[in-house]
Each structure stands twice: as structure tokens, then as C-alpha cells.
Write a structure and sequence with these properties.
Distance between the termini: 55 Å
Bound molecules: ligand C2E, calcium ion
Helix content: 40-55%
Strand order of the largest sheet: 19-20-22-23-24-25-26-27
């Protein structure tokens, strides 16, 4: 489960914001305002569209009802006029036969008709023949009558016409209609004047709701307004105030919006012409009135929307301000975060620099002692688990001090740098190179396949460093190195021991020959004089007593008590120092001098035992190595028993070690010799066991009591399963045959533990002690409980 604290979120956001290419705050702000703007714009556009639509609906509705009303009124008017035409046909009778009946009929008709309140009949000359009530025509009316009477031609009668309205009071609402009268034979005979009571007609519609300012008008054909009705009452027509009496397009019905009265607002005007009669009815309403309710609603809506807009804007601004504040906050956090990071980086930088300073040699850039110890220790930890070889080299430059003193420190420094450079170039990346100070260089050579590879590396280093260094501040300098080599784990299991031993070896190197290398393990130092010289000198060396025996203890696996020694021969050469047996025993075997040497060794071992006894020391058996050539010498058992007797020593104090290979060379004689030795009470050990081909079954037939497992098997016992199996099964089988088992070349505590678990009886190796000179053996005899070295 992971949970994020607010400060983590803040930090994460800050980081995210810092990374983006845009200014994210600007984007946030812009986004906020654009969003608000879009929302408001869409709200407004939808609402306005809705209002517009509503307005159209209201207007449409008004138009339809106006048109309906105009239609109804027109229809009514038409019926009235139709009646007038009917009256005229009745009045025609006047010119037929019986004017009297006509008069009576007309009077009757008129009495029941409230829309017509007067009628008069005129002949063609304009004389009034009949009148339902007295009336004085004004001149305009008379002119109109005469005009009407003279307009008939032949059989064509003039159409119904409206004469000018009378100005006389009380007749204001009476529209005088002129209708043609004809005789039985056709043709115009006179005119009927009917006074149409517009007031009565219009009053019928007065109660219809056409709004406070709505107007119903009746026009005659020339656009002269005859009458108008409002809710407030009836009015006289007054064409002088009318702007738009009739539509220009001559349509019978329709609606338009236009100003109606002079200096007045726009009206919605619906007209309906009667067509066959010269009348047009209009129903008008000021657009303002029609829209009044709509407008009130609209204003309310707009108010509301404005309010909403204001609130939204306020909110947006508020959020904007909040975002701004947040931005400030984030920016502050980001800034401080950045500063903190910078500070940490600086600190880390300084730490790194300090560490570098503390761990690097400032002159050469190599590791210093401190760093070397760290790196090398971790390498060694790994080395313990690997089958590869590791070597520690201590290198110093010959004559460095004198170069420094005579040519100056500057040249000395340049020289050290070049040497460091060459070391770096020669060695591998995995090797650890350090300068411990002065002209002391220390190197850990890592992961070698073979122990002998160290020789190649050391030789190469000597060669490279020996090359001249040209133009060091104007001087050409040539130096050789002295190198000491200690091998892991043979010469030390820990870094300090290895360095100490490499240092010792380096001094030895300096002492012997300048510009060379020396192993701490002397046996590996093979820079020897020519084998021929050695061979020549050998007999004299025996005479001159140049040979010495070194003794290596064998300890019990349980308790590490020393129970015996192996004598190992060394040649103390007056010129070449200590020479190890591998370099001269083969020579001596080759030319037979081994027999003399072998006798010397046996004598020396017996002498040593006698000396211990003389000094009152406890006696431990000494094993001597017998070479193949000696095993062909049938006089050997006699010589040995004779020497033992001469020194008055028990035979068990001397043991012999023979190798498998030396046995096979001449098995019959060898077996005889060994039988004799065993019979004399001398112990026989089979040396270097495992290297030969003999099986344990064969060994059973040999007169031996001990086998020594070759150190090649012990070395990798920890890492090589094969070697481990060989060692374990060898020990088990040897025990079954009643043989003692010695492990050779035990170098590490891990090997000790392993061999102990495998049941090995005795251990021998550098882990407990190297072969030591006779002087040192005495201490060991006194303290046979061995503390591992
Ligand atoms: P070896 O008989 O197997 O002797 C043991 C060798 O192993 C010795 O080398 C000893 O120094 C070395 N050694 C002992 N412990 C360790 C260890 O922990 N690690 C390593 N790496 N080596 C260890 P040394 O003295 O150089 O002898 C070499 C060989 O020379 C001997 O092998 C033996 O075959 C022969 N030799 C030595 N002394 C005599 C001698 O007096 N007479 C004869 N005939 N041969 C001798
Ligand atoms: Ca041996
Ligand atoms: Ca051996």
C-alpha cells in the first residue's frame, strides 16, 4: 500500500509543472477563462435564440388573430353591402311601374335594418325622388352624385361607390353609398343613396380585445379612412393623420408592419379588402403592444442571465485568483525545492571531492593507501571463493632518492607520474594500483588463471619501467624497479600480511639485484645461474657444507599438535643465495650425485635428532624425501639403519617419503628396499598421492603406512567438487586400508575445516608453518601445540 502525503503530491506536481514546455499556469488560467467564456456564450446564444423564436411566435399569433378579425369584419360588411344591393334592386321598381309600392317596400326594409339609417332615390338629373328622411347634401356629395350619374354609359351600370362623408354633426358616422338604379329595359335610370351606419357596424367589434392601442379601420377604395374603432370608443376617420392607408401591392389581404399614424410607432397592420365592394378593413396593433408581455418576459430573462453571467464571472475571477495564489505557492515550493536540490548536489559534490582527495594520491591520481586497502580487501573477499590466483606486488624505484636529491623534486614528481602512467597502461582495469607514498607503489594483481602468470606480469613491469623517461624538466632519467611479490593465499590470507610479505620480498629484491622482482615464497624465485654451473659445483657444495635442511611440521587435525617434521633440503649458495630443491634435485638425480646428497640428508636428519636429544628436547620423527634413484640403491636400508645406530636413535624417529613414480621405475628393487626399511621399523609414506596412476587397491600391496595427498588437490578443495570427492574418498579408503592420511599444502583455515570434516589425520602447510631453519625448530619442540601462523 502506498499513500501519498500532501507534501509529496505538491512536490510531484511541482516537478511535473517544472518539466512541461508550456507555462502551465498560463494554460490553466487561459483554460479557466475560455471555459467560462464558452459556457456563458452558449447560455446567451441559446437564450437569445429562444427569445427570438418566442418573439416570432408572438408576432405570428398576433398576425393570425388580426387577419381573422379583419376577415370576419369584412365578411360582415359584405353581407351589409349585399343587403344594400338588394335594396337597390327593390328601388329599381321605382322606375318600373309602381313607385309607390317601391317606396313602401323600401320603408319596410329600412325599418328592420339598423345598419342603414337613411335612403334616397335620385333620377338621372340628380333630383331627389324619394328620401326616407330629410337630408341636405353638401356640395361634395352633390358633385359625387352627379359624377356617379354621369358615369353610366349604355347598359353598363356604375359600381357601388362611397360619396364623401357629410361634415354635418350627427351624420358623421354615416357613409353615403351610391348604388345604380335601372329601368326594366336596362341602362342607368337613377341612383340610390344609402346611408350606412358605420358606428353601428363597428360598435359590434368594440368589445373584441385588440389591446389598449389596437385600431380597427374601414377604408374606401381611394384609401380614405371612413371610421375607426378603438377600445376607448369610435372615432371619425381622419385620413390626414394616416401614413399608410392601404398596401401598395394591391393584395386583397395580408399583414405588414409599418408606421400607421404620423409620428407614431410601428403597427402590425392586417388588411382585408372586400374586392367586389370598394371597402378595405384593417386591424392594427402597435408592435410594441403585441410584444409588451414578451418584452417584459425577455427583460426578466436577460436580467437573470446577466445576473448569472456576473456570478459566473465573479466565480471565474475568484478561481483565477485562487489559481494565482496556488501558483505563487507552487513556484515558491519549486524554487525552494530547486535550491534544496542544488544545495544537496553541492554537498554531494564536495563530499565526492573530499572523498577523492582522501582516497586518491594527488600526484599520480592512483589510489592512496586508504582506498587501496578498501578495494583490495573486497577483491580478496571474492578471491576466497574463486579458483583464480591473486598476487600483491610491492614496487619501489631504485635510486629514486638520489634522483630526487640531485635533480630536484620536480623531476622526481614527473618521474613518479610517468611510472604511475606506465603501471596503469600495463596492468588491467581489474588490478588495483596505489601509491603508498614516496616511490612506493602497491599493486593487487587479480584473477590470474595460473600462478606462473605473475612472473610474466612482473617481468613486463620491470621492462616497461626500465624504459628511459625523456625530458623530465630537461633531464633524461632511467630507473629500474625492485618488486616484491606475495601470493594469495599462500603468503598471507589477509591484506596486511600480504603487504608485509611483499615488502620483505621487495627488500630482498633490492639487496640481490637491482631492477628485478622476488617472490616472498623463496621456492618460486628461479632466477638462477645456469644449471650447468650448479651441477659442476654440487659435489664441492656437499663437501663445503653449503646444504641445509629446513623442517616443516606436520600437525594433528585434532588440536593441531605437532607430531613430526618433514626435512626439506636447501642450498645456501654463496653467490646466489638460497636455492630450492626443485632447481637442483633433478640435476643431482640426473648425474647420480643424488646418492651422495641423499646420504648427506639422512646423516643430517639423524644428526639433528641427536642434537635435540643432547639438548634434552622431546624427540619427534623426521621424514626425509627419497628420490627414485635412491630407491634403486639396495644399500640404502643398510645405510639408514647404520646411521640410526651410529647416533643411537630409535628407527621410528626416521621416516621416508617416496613418490609413486619413483616406485614404479623399478618396482621390484624398490619394494625390496621398502620391505627392509619397514622391517627395520622405519615408517614409509607415499608422497604426492593422487598424481600417479596407482589405485588404492595396488597401494594395498605396498609396504607403506601413510599417504600424503598432493597439494594440488588441497588447493581447490573448496571450489572444485571433483577434487573434493577425490580427497574425501581417498581418506575413507585409506582408512579402510589402515593407512594414515596427511594433507599437504594446507594454506587456509577453510581448507583446515574441510579436511577436518573429511577425517584427514595430519595437516602440513604454510597455514601452520613454512619450512623453517633448524634453529627455529627447537621452540616448536618445546611447544608442540601449534597456534596457526
Ligand atoms: P615435497 O616432498 O612435496 O615437499 C613439499 C613441498 O611443498 C616443499 O617445497 C614445501 O616447501 C612445499 N610446501 C609445504 N607447505 C606448502 C604450502 O602450504 N604451500 C605451498 N605452495 N607449498 C608448500 P620444497 O621444499 O621446495 O620442495 C620441493 C620438492 O623438492 C619436494 O616436494 C621434494 O619432492 C623435493 N625435495 C625437497 N627436499 C628434498 C630432499 O631432501 N630429498 C629429495 N630427494 N627431494 C627433496
Ligand atoms: Ca615430501
Ligand atoms: Ca609432496
Amino acid at each position: 500500500m502506498s499513500s501519498s502525503t500532501p507534501s509529496e503530491i505538491t512536490r510531484a506536481m511541482t516537478r511535473a509543472f517544472a518539466k512541461s514546455r508550456w507555462n502551465p499556469w498560463l494554460v490553466l488560467h487561459a483554460g479557466l477563462f475560455i471555459l467560462a467564456g464558452l459556457l456563458l456564450a452558449s447560455m446567451w446564444s441559446v437564450s437569445l435564440a429562444r427569445l427570438q423564436h418566442e418573439r416570432t411566435l408572438v408576432i405570428d399569433h398576433a398576425r393570425v388573430s388580426q387577419q381573422n378579425l379583419a376577415g370576419i369584419i369584412a365578411e360582415n360588411l359584405r353581407q351589409v353591402l349585399d343587403r344594400g344591393v338588394l335594396y337597390s334592386s327593390v328601388a329599381d321598381g321605382w322606375f318600373h311601374a309602381s313607385p309607390r309600392t317601391g317606396e313602401a317596400n323600401l320603408a319596410n326594409l329600412l325599418a328592420g335594418d339598423r345598419t342603414y339609417n337613411r335612403m334616397a332615390i335620385f333620377n338621372l338629373q340628380g333630383h331627389e325622388l324619394f328620401a326616407s328622411s330629410p337630408h341636405v347634401m353638401d356640395t361634395d356629395q352633390q358633385a359625387a352624385l352627379h359624377d356617379f350619374l354621369s358615369s353610366g354609359a349604355g347598359n353598363t351600370l356604375p359600381a357601388l361607390r362611397v360619396a364623401p362623408l357629410s361634415r354635418a354633426y350627427g351624420e358623421a358616422w354615416h357613409a353615403p353609398l351610391l348604388l345604380p338604379l335601372s329601368g326594366p329595359e336596362g341602362g342607368l335610370r337613377g341612383a340610390l343613396m344609402l346611408h350606412l351606419d358605420l358606428g353601428y357596424l363597428l360598435r359590434l367589434y368594440q368589445d373584441i380585445d385588440i389591446g389598449a392601442n389596437g385600431v380597427i379601420q374601414i377604408f374606401e377604395e381611394h384609401g380614405i379612412e371612413l371610421a375607426r374603432a378603438r377600445r376607448s370608443g369610435l372615432e371619425m376617420g381622419d385620413s390626414s393623420k394616416i401614413v399608410n392607408p392601404l398596401p401598395k401591392d394591391g393584395s386583397l389581404s395580408g399583414t405588414r408592419s409599418a408606421p400607421l399614424f404620423k409620428a407614431m410607432s410601428t403597427y402590425l397592420i392586417s388588411h382585408h379588402s372586400l374586392g367586389d365592394y370598394p371597402f378595405t378593413v384593417t386591424v392594427n396593433q402597435p408592435v410594441e403592444d403585441i410584444l409588451a408581455e414578451y418584452r417584459a418576459r425577455r427583460d426578466k430573462d436577460i436580467m437573470l442571465m446577466s445576473l448569472l453571467t456576473a456570478i459566473a464571472l465573479l466565480l471565474t475571477v475568484g478561481v483565477g485568483v485562487m489559481v494565482s495564489r496556488q501558483r505563487l505557492y507552487f513556484e515558491t515550493v519549486a524554487r525552494s525545492e530547486k535550491e534544496k536540490k542544488l544545495l544537496i548536489e553541492q554537498l554531494e559534490d564536495e563530499k565526492r571531492r573530499a572523498y577523492e582527495l582522501a582516497s586518491r594520491d594527488h600526484l599520480t591520481g592512483l589510489a592512496n593507501r586508504r582506498m587501496f586497502m578498501q578495494l583490495a580487501a573486497s577483491h580478496l573477499a571474492r578471491a576466497r571463493r574463486s579458483r583464480q590466483h591473486y598476487a600483491l606486488m610491492f614496487l619501489d624505484l631504485d635510486r629514486f632518492k638520489s634522483i630526487n636529491d640531485t635533480l630536484g623534486h620536480k623531476v622526481g614528481d614527473l618521474l613518479l607520474r610517468i611510472v604511475a602512467q606506465r603501471l596503469r597502461e600495463t596492468l588491467r582495469e581489474s588490478d588495483v594500483i596505489a601509491r603508498f607514498g614516496g616511490d612506493e607503489f602497491v599493486i593487487l594483481v587479480t584473477g590470474l588463471e595460473h600462478e606462473t602468470d605473475v612472473v610474466g606480469i612482473a617481468e613486463k613491469l620491470v621492462e616497461i619501467i626500465r624504459k628511459p623517461c625523456l625530458d623530465l624538466d630537461g633531464h633524461d632519467v632511467q630507473v629500474g624497479p625492485s618488486i616484491g611479490v606475495a601470493l594469495f593465499p599462500r603468503d598471507g590470507q589477509d591484506l596486511d600480511t600480504l603487504i608485509r610479505h611483499a615488502d620483505i620480498a621487495m627488500y630482498q629484491s633490492k639487496k640481490l639485484s637491482r631492477g628485478s622482482f622476488t617472490f616472498f615464497d623463496q621456492s618460486l624465485n628461479t632466477h638462477l645461474p645456469h644449471a650447468f654451473d650448479l651441477e659442476q659445483r654440487l659435489p664441492k657444495a656437499i663437501e663445503d657444507g653449503e646444504f641445509v635442511l629446513h623442517f616443516q611440521p606436520k600437525v594433528e587435525t585434532e588440536g593441531f599438535r605437532t607430531v613430526g617434521f618433514e626435512a626439506l633440503i636447501r642450498w645456501q649458495h654463496p653467490e646466489h643465495g638460497l636455492i630450492f630443491p626443485n632447481d637442483f634435485i633433478p640435476l643431482a638425480e640426473g648425474n647420480g650425485q643424488i646418492l651422495a646428497l641423499g646420504q648427506w640428508i639422512i646423516e643430517a636428519a639423524c644428526r639433528e635428532l641427536a642434537a635435540w636429544r643432547a639438548d634434552g628436547l622431546p624427540l619427534l620423527p623426521i621424514a626425509v624425501n627419497i628420490s627414485a634413484r635412491q630407491l634403486r640403491d639396495t644399500g640404502l636400508p643398510a645405510y639408514i639403519t647404520e646411521r640410526l645406530a651410529a647416533h643411537n636413535l630409535e628407527p621410528r624417529l626416521l621416516q621416508v617419503e617416496v613418490t609413486e613414480s619413483s616406485l614404479v621405475e623399478n618396482i621390484e628393487i624398490a619394494r625390496g628396499i621398502l620391505d627392509e626399511l619397514v622391517a627395520a621399523g622405519i615408517g614409509v609414506a607415499l608422497d604426492d598421492f593422487g598424481n600417479g596412476f596407482s589405485s588404492l587397491g595396488y597401494i594395498k600391496t605396498l609396504p607403506i603406512d601413510t599417504i600424503k595427498i598432493d597439494r594440488g588437490f588441497i588447493r581447490d578443495i573448496q571450489n572444485s567438487p571433483d577434487d573434493a570427492i577425490i580427497v574425501e574418498s581417498t581418506i575413507i579408503l585409506a582408512h579402510k586400508l589402515g593407512l594414515r592420511v596427511v594433507a599437504e599444502g594446507v594454506e587456509t583455515s577453510d581448507q583446515v575445516v574441510y579436511l577436518k570434516n573429511a577425517g584427514c589425520d595430519l595437516l602440513q602447510g604454510y597455514y601452520f608453518s613454512r619450512p623453517i631453519p633448524r634453529e627455529q625448530v627447537r621452540g616448536m619442540l618445546l611447544h608442540p601445540m601449534k597456534e596457526p601462523s
